[in-house]
Design a protein that fits this description.
This protein has about 250 residues and is of the alpha/beta class. Helix content is about 20%, strand content about 35%.
Length: about 250
């Protein structure tokens, strides 16, 4: 699937934020203020960034670590927090085996540590809250989608939003404590008693698309390459227009 989008020179959430590309290009100091365990393999890291100019739900940033010897490592990470969380950003990171940056966060990072961040980046996957949104994610692919869910709640938006999320089992479901009526969960390997186990199917997607608004849905898919391909096929089979499917993939 071809993803074609030219970001505007300014991003905007109506009545809330406007971020210039120039501001997004500057490195800023982010101070780690909180660490929350989400699953055995994923944690949320909360940072104070006093000069952060805001972001759209779904955008990501560049993070830079600098060692004492001057060595630097940079990674792109989706932003989990909503734009309403002024002066702060949250990142939820998997502990990737052998991962240079994720390994540092999960084994060495302590409150008060400082890193550098630059952003927000990319307008393609952003959801400004102005259209019905069907969000589909697996594993840590739920991170940018959670920013959208939190924004929807924080603003009390009436525009429809639905989240369809896949995880291997309940213990690996990131943000499980926060999900509400907008969320449908699919477990692929183990599930609570009475809950079926299996892959996400066309029936899951069709059931959500059937709840149509007059304007239809804008679909946002985030996950591994294999999951993104699977989910996009399900959407197309269910009749979702190809030009209303936005995909962010990793791995």
């Amino acid at each position: 699937m071809t993803e074609t989008f030219v970001p505007a020179t300014r991003f905007a959430v109506p009545g809330r934020i406007a971020v210039s590309n120039r501001s997004a290009a500057l490195w800023q100091t982010a101070t780690l203020t909180e660490i929350r365990r989400e699953t055995p393999y994923a944690s949320t890291f909360r940072f104070a960034v006093p000069d952060w100019q805001g972001h759209l739900p779904g955008q990501h940033l560049m993070l830079r670590l600098t060692a004492q010897d001057g060595y630097t490592a940079q990674r792109h990470y989706s932003i989990a927090s909503p734009p309403e969380d002024t002066g702060h950003i949250e990142l939820t990171l998997d502990h990737v085996e052998g991962g240079e940056v994720s390994g540092w966060f999960h084994t060495e990072a302590a409150l008060g540590d400082e890193v550098e961040v630059r952003g927000p980046l990319s307008g393609f996957f952003a959801w400004p809250g102005d259209r019905p949104a069907l969000l589909i994610g697996a594993g840590s692919g739920v991170v940018p989608l959670m920013s959208m869910v939190r924004h929807h709640r924080a603003r009390g938006l009436s525009v429809p939003l639905r989240l369809l999320v896949s995880a291997r089992g309940p213990e690996e479901l990131i943000y499980a404590r926060e999900f509400g009526a907008e969320t449908t969960t699919v477990f692929t390997r183990s599930a609570p008693a009475g809950v079926p186990v299996g892959r996400m199917t066309a029936a899951h997607v069709a059931a959500l698309l059937a709840d149509q608004s007059d304007d239809g849905w804008e679909a946002y898919v985030c996950g591994s390459n294999a999951f993104a391909e699977h989910a996009s096929r399900l959407l197309l089979t269910a009749g979702q227009p190809v030009d209303r499917i936005r995909i962010e993939r990793f791995g």
